[in-house]
Amino acid sequence: MFLYHPIKTYLYRMNPFDDNYFMKRALEEAHIAFDKGEVPVGAVIVVDDRIIARAHNLTEQLTDVTAHAEMQAITAASNFLGGKYLNQCTLYVTLEPCVMCSGALYWSQLKKIVYGASDPKRGGLALGVNLHPKTEIVSGVMKDEASELLKSFFSQKRT
Ligand SMILES: [Zn+2]
Fold first, then answer.
1. pTM beyond cutoff 0.85
2. Active site residue ranges
3. Residue 49 C-alpha to ligand 1 middle, in angstroms?
């Protein structure tokens, strides 16, 4: 009995589609937002290692306070799948979802949510909002990159 498979382990390690890979794609979206003068938050939604939705914050462009990256990613993913529940999907978002987005994410029944930087003031989890009981939550993935981008955005705004 061989419980340890060196080749399989090697191939597993070679799989580039890990949480960091998809968080990098979400960070790319955050950079697009930054360049547009939007608060730099980005998101992607993934099924079976495939990105089915990409979004970034567009509250300025759409003059709509609800145009957060997550809200748009949910709509795009549901349109793509033709179903309202995202229970096979993972959302990657660069900042902890706010209370509004956490509410929407609850309804979408995501399989997994991976976020980068924490948001102690506005974050849904920080403020005690429960996500769907079946949703797995991973926090802190590439959090330094995400928070540096937010910090440089707000320090640029102040000057
Ligand atoms: Zn939000």
1. yes
2. 70
3. 24
